[in-house]
Write a structure and sequence with these properties.
Helix content is 80%, strand content 0%. By secondary structure, it is mainly alpha-helical. The N and C termini lie far apart (44 Å).
Length: 198
C-alpha cells in the first residue's frame, strides 16, 4: 500500500487516523505511515515534530477508547467483536500476562511493540488500572513510538537518493543472485525427491 498519496492529500489527519485505529485494536499500517512521514519530513513536505505530536495524539485517543471499552465492556465483549479484526483469545492472554507482570511499564513498552500496541490498553481497563497512571504511561509510549519511527524515516529520507541509486546499481546483481539461489534449491529439491521412495 502506497501511503504517500494519502499523506499528500490528507496530511496529518491521515497520521492521526491510522494511529487512532491501531490503538483501538484495528490493524493499521502505523510503521509504514510514520516512516513515510519521516521521509516526507526530510524532503520538506511535512514537519517531523508536528507529525510526531499528531501521531501521539491519535495513539493516545485510541488508547483511551480501548481503556474505557475494557473497563466497561470487559473481556467477553472484546472477544465477541474483536475476532473480526484479529483479536483472538490467545493474543489477548499473552498481552494480559505482560500487563499483570509489568503493569505501568507494560503499557509504556506495549505502545512501542508491534502487535502489542493493538491490545495493551484493554487489559488496563479489565484490571481497572488507575486512570492517571494509565494516561501517563500511554502518553510516554505514544510519544516514544512516533519519535523512533519518524526519526528513522527522516534519516532514511536524507539519504533517499543514495538508497535509490544503490538499489538501481545493484538490483540486477541481487536478482541474478536470487535466481541462482532458487535454481540451486530446485536442483537440491529434485535430487532429494528422487532419492525418497514413493
Amino acid at each position: 500500500m502506497n501511503l504517500v498519496p494519502l499523506l499528500h492529500q490528507y496530511g496529518y489527519a491521515a497520521i492521526f487516523l491510522v494511529l487512532f485505529l491501531e490503538a483501538v485494536g484495528i490493524p493499521a499500517p502505523s510503521e509504514i505511515t510514520l516512516v513515510t512521514a519521516g521521509v516526507m519530513a526530510a524532503q520538506g513536505q511535512l514537519s517531523a515534530p508536528v507529525a510526531i505530536l499528531v501521531a501521539a495524539c491519535g495513539s493516545t485517543g485510541g488508547a483511551m477508547v480501548s481503556y474505557l471499552i475494557g473497563l466497561r465492556g470487559g473481556r467477553t465483549l472484546i472477544l465477541l467483536y474483536g475476532k473480526r479484526v484479529g483479536i483472538t483469545d490467545q493474543r489477548l492472554e499473552r498481552v494480559e500476562k505482560l500487563f499483570t507482570r509489568y503493569g505501568m511499564g507494560a503499557v509504556i513498552v506495549g505502545r512501542i511493540l508491534s502487535g502489542v500496541r493493538l491490545l495493551i490498553s484493554y487489559p488496563a481497563g479489565f484490571f481497572e488500572m488507575p486512570f492517571p497512571r494509565f494516561l501517563i504511561a500511554t502518553v510516554i509510549g505514544a510519544l516514544a513510538w512516533p519519535i523512533l519511527a519518524v526519526e528513522a524515516g527522516r534519516v532514511l529520507g536524507q539519504y533517499w537518493d543514495q538508497v535509490v541509486d544503490t538499489i538501481i546499481g545493484t538490483g540486477p546483481w541481487i536478482l541474478a543472485g536470487l535466481a541462482l539461489a532458487g535454481l540451486v534449491y530446485l536442483i537440491y529439491w529434485l535430487r532429494q525427491r528422487r532419492r525418497t521412495p514413493l
